[in-house]
Design brief:
119 residues; mainly alpha; 2 domains; two-stranded antiparallel sheet
Length: 119
């Protein structure tokens, strides 16, 4: 009887592989791709390629601390997360640039003059 069950298991595996082959031919995948955590070097190389100035170590550390999840959802693509970081960085840059600008006394006097003008 043990031999019969072993044969049944082998047949199940064959059927499963055949189903996967059929789905692949139809352009469907039965299984989702497994997420592979990137190394700091992979992230650094991708960021250099994109010339985005994102700190690879910060990126990897941040998502490592979150278990490579975005909210409660497991991450599917770290490269897409890099693009999101780029967008956030671009939104923050003008604010930071304005906030850290060192104005000369003459520039500050102009601002004072503008603020004191009565309309």
């Amino acid at each position: 009887m043990k031999d019969v069950w072993e044969e049944i298991e082998k047949l199940k595996q064959v059927v499963s592989r055949l189903q996967d082959d059929v789905n692949q031919l139809k352009g469907k995948t039965n299984k989702t791709e497994k997420f592979n955590k990137p190394t700091v070097e992979e992230v650094r190389a991708y960021c250099m390629e994109r010339k985005n100035g994102i700190d690879a170590e910060s990126f990897v550390s941040f998502y490592e601390s979150k278990g490579w999840k975005i909210g409660k959802t497991p991450m599917k693509s770290w490269k897409s997360a890099i693009v999101t970081w780029e967008k956030k960085k671009k939104q923050q840059e003008p604010k930071q640039q304005f906030a850290t600008h060192n104005y000369t006394k003459e520039e500050m006097n102009v601002f004072d003059d503008i603020n004191n003008v009565e309309i």
